[in-house]
Write a structure and sequence with these properties.
Strand order of the largest sheet of chain A: 4-3-2-1-5
Largest sheet of chain A: 5 strands, antiparallel
Number of helices of chain B: 4
Mean pLDDT of chain B: 91
Distance between the termini of chain B: 66 Å
Radius of gyration of chain B: 20 Å
Order of helices and strands of chain A: EEEEEHH
Largest sheet of chain B: 2 strands, antiparallel
Oligomer: heterodimer
Strand content of chain A: 25-35%
Number of helices of chain A: 2
Low-confidence stretches of chain B: none
Mean pLDDT of chain A: 86
Radius of gyration of chain A: 19 Å
Distance between the termini of chain A: 66 Å
Helix content of chain B: 25-40%
Number of strands of chain B: 2
Strand content of chain B: 5-15%
Shape of chain B: elongated
CATH class of the domain at 4-69 in chain A: Mainly Beta
Helix content of chain A: 10-25%
CATH topology of the domain at 4-69 in chain A: SH3 type barrels
Structural class of chain B: alpha+beta
Strand order of the largest sheet of chain B: 1-2
Shape of chain A: elongated
Low-confidence stretches of chain A: none
Number of strands of chain A: 5
Chain lengths: 95, 88
């Protein structure tokens, strides 16, 4: 099951593609991809034939990379790395 | 003669008999048809209807649900529509 590409059928995210990341109960899975990572009932999903190479419980970044390799569009922007702010030095004044 | 704005038929007329045994006319808003699913014809939930002056003041997200095909298809028909497109 893990790595299977699915499409969500109900709710405000209907029509968006995602990947199964984890199993929770018999009928529930954790999905991630073009939506916020969430627990979802299998009856609200449509399974496709494609299966991606993903470990169990993979992070969103890993899922997005795997989706790009399989040429599935990633519509959600990835979280940017926060740049380290350099502390201003007062060297010039000392001179 | 009634007021000029009351002479047009935009408002519905309701004839009422008062306790003093007089006939009076009340002017009320006309009913508006509710939105239906275009494929199965079921009434759609969560869609505001009424005169445009009232709908204008509702927020954009308050008028319709946020789903795909919202305001056109019901939830069950969107499900079938998406499945049909995937399996092609």
């Amino acid at each position: 099951m893990i790595g299977r590409v699915v499409v969500k059928l109900s709710g405000k995210e209907a029509g968006r593609t995602a990947v199964i990341v984890d199993n929770v109960e018999d009928n529930f899975v954790v999905i991630d991809g073009n939506l916020k990572r969430r627990k979802c009932n299998l009856s609200h999903l449509e399974l496709t034939e494609a299966v991606l190479d993903i470990k169990k419980g993979a992070s969103t970044r890993e899922v997005h990379d795997a989706m790009k390799k399989a040429s599935i569009k990633v519509t959600i922007p990835r979280e940017k790395k926060v740049k380290e702010v350099k502390e201003k030095t007062n060297d010039k004044r000392k001179k | 003669m009634p007021v000029p704005s009351r002479r047009s038929r935009t408002l519905r007329r309701v004839y009422v008999k008062t306790p003093g045994n007089k006939n009076k006319i009340l002017y009320k808003l006309r009913g508006h048809s509710r939105a239906k699913c275009s494929s199965c014809g079921r009434l759609l939930h969560g869609i505001k209807t009424g005169p445009s002056s009232i709908i204008r003041n509702i927020s954009k997200s308050g008028k319709n649900p946020k789903r795909m095909f919202a305001g056109v298809l019901c939830g069950n028909c969107t499900k079938l529509e998406i499945i049909k497109r995937i399996r092609k």
